[in-house]
Structure prediction request, 820 residues.
Amino acid sequence: MLNKFLKIIEVSEVEKILKDLFNDLYSNHKSENVELECANHRVLAENINATMDLPPFDRASKDGFAVHAPDTFGATEEESVILDLLEHIDAGQRPQKKIKPGYCSLINTGAPIPEGASGVVMVEYTETRGKKIEIYRPAAPGQFITKQGSDIKQGDRLLSKGTFITSDKIGALSAMGLKKIPVQEKIKVAIISTGKELVNSGQDLEYGQIYDVNSYSLRSAVIACGALPLWLGVVPDDYDGLSDIMKDAINQSDIVLTSGSTSAGTGDVLKDVIKDMGEVLVHGISVKPGKPTIVGKINEKIIIGLPGYPVAALMIFQIFLAPYIRILSGKAFNNSIKTVKYPLKERFFSSKGRLHYALVKIIDEQVYPIFKDSGAIAALAQAQGYIKIPKNVEILNEETEVEVYLFDGL
Amino acid sequence: MLNKFLKIIEVSEVEKILKDLFNDLYSNHKSENVELECANHRVLAENINATMDLPPFDRASKDGFAVHAPDTFGATEEESVILDLLEHIDAGQRPQKKIKPGYCSLINTGAPIPEGASGVVMVEYTETRGKKIEIYRPAAPGQFITKQGSDIKQGDRLLSKGTFITSDKIGALSAMGLKKIPVQEKIKVAIISTGKELVNSGQDLEYGQIYDVNSYSLRSAVIACGALPLWLGVVPDDYDGLSDIMKDAINQSDIVLTSGSTSAGTGDVLKDVIKDMGEVLVHGISVKPGKPTIVGKINEKIIIGLPGYPVAALMIFQIFLAPYIRILSGKAFNNSIKTVKYPLKERFFSSKGRLHYALVKIIDEQVYPIFKDSGAIAALAQAQGYIKIPKNVEILNEETEVEVYLFDGL
Prediction:
């Protein structure tokens, strides 16, 4: 007889083991500096304080005339005040002339307030007659002047470490003129497919071969979680070949995802490779599909041996790993799996004794199970999500309301 | 007096105008071929049919022995059947020998079934003694054989036009060995900042200048919506300069987003440029912030003149434009704005007569309004989202439950 699974363990226990592994990864999370243009959807690795006052100078918040405010007190449509125009201060320009009583300067929104000015009268309440400006309303002292530092003062906290950077935070960072932003490094995930029958897409198939699916689907899923895939492609599944590639993979990544070579068959060497280089923590989970999944650790790197069947590999990734990777990428909130609830259209028989994840599609607010095995590509093509059937439930009757976990966005 | 807004119009009317503009854009949506590796989160532009049977040959679904099934009928632990071993067929290999009655071949999961075999006995129910294989269980005809084409047949529909491609669909496409995938082109959005006082991040500021915010925040927001930014940076806001850049922008993009130069001040030329090259459809929306927004059309391209103030520019983009761009990018469902409901911590006074979008932060499940104007960067830094206050509401009292639209993921 061949060697069997170490021990099939429950989902809750696997989750505990994964949580510990990812906690270690989280506490060793390094940072890097990236261009401002690349910082969106990253996690800020340091507190950012304002490098300057904002605005950096007193500026006009309306188009109008900068005045010595007391000159305008009492001005009305009937009893206007007439001031002498000194200059036109456009945004971006340094004022050349000081405002003395009796004088004013035309000023645009965003332009610096000239020396001596204590208010701005909106252009709507003025009339220009050559160099003479008629003012119809008074300017209260400070009116339409945004004071230097009134938005934020140099040295004040702008953004805190741990902030998930979205377009609004990019705006705040760009206001400081920052080019390089310290962010947490992306988690690096090496992706390896094993299987002598596998061929990369675009090449010709020989008899007995099939195209590799897992390294493409997992690569997309890893990117959607905000991590960086390191794509090692199809590798041999013999002990020496797999050991060599594993050494490379753990040197270059935080997590190694393999698929294939996990079950108890004759060609299955992954478990031996992990055992010899590190530690096998899980070999066999009480779920369907995905029972032969391996979880291991080599030099503090997390090794996940996914089953070879595409449906099983992707489901185990999405259910057990994606949530942790999203947390490390700051995407826990906005990129989590969404669910909808609809009645089941057809009776569904589940497998005994294991938590079952079954692929489904939704048509007209009814849920149709997809009756294909975990090797089936058609199932992947048709599925919109999956339902969970607890291990003690064998039959879900028609019309049972089920919660569908949607693949959208994954 | 200077020229005023054309006419301040209601939000519902603006939405109708935008819907028509984006419908035209949608119906002219072109497609392109991209590498499989780049097809995730794109929209499939054609139906994809299976280019081959899957599996492409009869294959074993378990590790075991390929047998002439009738040979094994009646086999038990007590009364085993003994067969002669012909060969070992590994995955990816072409079988060399035909299974005649009395013979068997060792076969791995995924390997092609040899000619003459009609079932597979799992390795767990056998014992190997040199070239003699003891069989303890019968193989029903067809047992553990996945027939050629049983998953999907060549020519069958694999995926339909319009499918939003997620990692599971990448899996289905890779199974066919496809290298190039026809997808809808990304919507191209030109981004222009106008303002004589604006400087790109990383450069030195002179007196009176500030760093450009909008082209950075809008660029991030455009990417997050699944579109392609065309970043034209800070351009002069005089008529000739803006006309020239507008010609370039409409040639290279589907949508042109400008910011600044929209209000009724002396330096505001955008409206004239649009009027002379095409049509101004909206100039002034009954909202706060963002009242001076312009919507126009030049040669079937959508022109949006956003206000210069960063908060206003980003809010108008997120509220009025992002939903349509997400639909065009297939991201309507999974990337939409999320909301939460919590009580307001402090009384909030809204402005009369306009729908008001107010920035807020959330602390301990309570909503704090951010009392900063729409020019404020600190507001962008602190905000977690916004609330909507209808135009006929002037005061929201403490403890009022409000719905917060979250910036997460934008």
Observations:
- Helices of chain A lie at 11-27, 167-175, 214-224, 239-252, 270-277, 310-328, 377-382.
- Residues 310-328 of chain A form the longest helix (19 residues).
- The mean pLDDT of chain A is 92.
